[in-house]
Design goal:
Elements (H helix, E strand, L loop, with lengths): L19 H10 L3 H4 L4 E2 L21 E7 L16 E4 L7 E2 L1 H7 L24 H6 L1 E4 L2 E4 L1 H17 L3 H17 L3 H4 L4 H6 L4 H24 L3 H12 L8 H13 L2 H19 L11 H6 L2 H8 L8 H31 L1
Antiparallel strand pairs: 1-4, 2-3, 5-6
Length: 355
């Protein structure tokens, strides 16, 4: 049996079920020997400097998965709520606990998709991205205006990580780096750097509801597809990430300098994925997301997440699977680029700690 995130004996089932960012991070870090061999670090409280310059959502709580009790066994295929896991976790740093850095990177990589970026007033135009969460996880242009601040989210957490390491808190150095890797992976996704094809936008320019719901349906539909493939143990995705991460040791430059080109490469793949979903699933997929309300009381990310199970039934229904081979090829290429960037990011910190 090939070892994958969902069957790795080094990772307790209490931390499962696993989601896309955890799979993405897992395959990247496992390709970096210099990182996986680093010794455990002591679990510590979060350093106080972050809240002063980067507000977090009012519902956010730092949980500590190093202390856990297994409580339940959720279906690994049909679980879509990042907050619901097989275990209960500590709300304060557990005394005397240590954890390997690569595990910190993996198990906290979904943290930015919880309440960290929710329910904030970060920009007057955040409604266009579905709220503060979308604003911090995306950056795209509509006509001549730019919406979102995902590159800033990446840069801020990269700096936080460095500050934590400089102040002797290696645990939070790795945990901030895990959050940083989340935003970096988002910037390699076509739907985080482009909202809609220009032709589709102009055709529906006077129908804001159509634009918003179509963008939400295709974006979330693609994420449901990627996550399901990972959970099925689809080997080309893990191989692509590992291949990209392995290339990091010979890559020139650094992640910050490469960021614009990385985003542009993802942006260029947007239209073919977008139209694949419209052509293949069309009205059925849009119907699933018809209840998403951009003016609703909850963030759009939370609303679309509640549609995930029905979206999966549409995308993976009988008769539709052969068409996914087209999408598989494009996505493997996207994930190789993500793996390279994550590999460069993680390796730079791992090399510094190994000196």
């Amino acid at each position: 049996m090939n070892v994958d995130l969902h069957n790795d004996p080094d990772l307790p089932q209490a931390w499962a079920p696993w989601f896309s960012h955890e799979y993405i991070t897992y395959h990247a870090v496992r390709a970096l020997d210099g990182l996986t061999f680093l010794p455990p670090v002591a679990v510590k409280p979060r350093p106080p400097f972050a809240d002063k310059v980067w507000p977090v959502g009012p519902k956010h709580i730092d949980i500590y998965k190093e202390s856990y009790q297994e409580r339940r066994r959720l279906d690994p295929v049909w679980s879509f709520d990042y907050k619901k896991r097989n275990g209960d976790f500590a709300l304060a740093p557990p005394s005397g606990k240590t954890i390997e850095p690569w595990k910190v990177l993996v198990i906290y990589s979904t943290e930015p998709d919880l309440y960290l970026d929710h329910d904030l007033a970060v920009h007057k135009n955040q409604k266009i991205t579905g709220g503060s969460h979308g604003w911090r996880h995306m950056e795209f242009k509509v006509l001549t205006s730019t919406f979102g601040a995902a590159p800033k989210s990446f840069l801020v957490h990269q700096d936080f990580s460095g500050l934590a390491f400089e102040n002797g808190n290696d645990y939070w150095g790795w945990r901030y780096l895990s959050r940083c890797g989340h935003y970096l992976a988002d910037l390699g996704s076509p739907f985080h750097v482009k909202a809609l094809p220009s032709c589709f936008l102009m055709k529906n320019i006077f129908s804001g509801q159509t634009l918003f719901r179509t963008a939400s349906a295709v974006h979330q539909g693609y994420e449901v597809y990627v996550e399901r493939r990972f959970r099925e143990g689809f080997e080309p995705f893990g191989q692509a990430l590992a291949r990209g991460a392995s290339e990091a040791k010979n890559a020139a430059g650094n992640v910050r300098h490469r960021l614009p080109a990385y985003m542009e490469k993802a942006r260029k793949k947007h239209n073919e994925v977008f139209y694949f979903f419209l052509d293949q699933y069309g009205r059925d997929l849009l119907e699933v997301f018809s209840r998403v309300d951009p003016g609703g009381p909850t963030e759009t990310a939370s609303q679309t997440n509640q549609c995930s199970a029905d979206a999966a039934r549409v995308i993976f229904r009988d008769g539709a699977l052969p068409a996914l081979s087209f999408l598989d090829g494009i996505t493997a290429g996207i994930l190789e680029d993500v793996g390279l960037m994550l590999g460069m990011l993680f390796q730079s910190f791992a090399a510094a700690k190994a000196r």
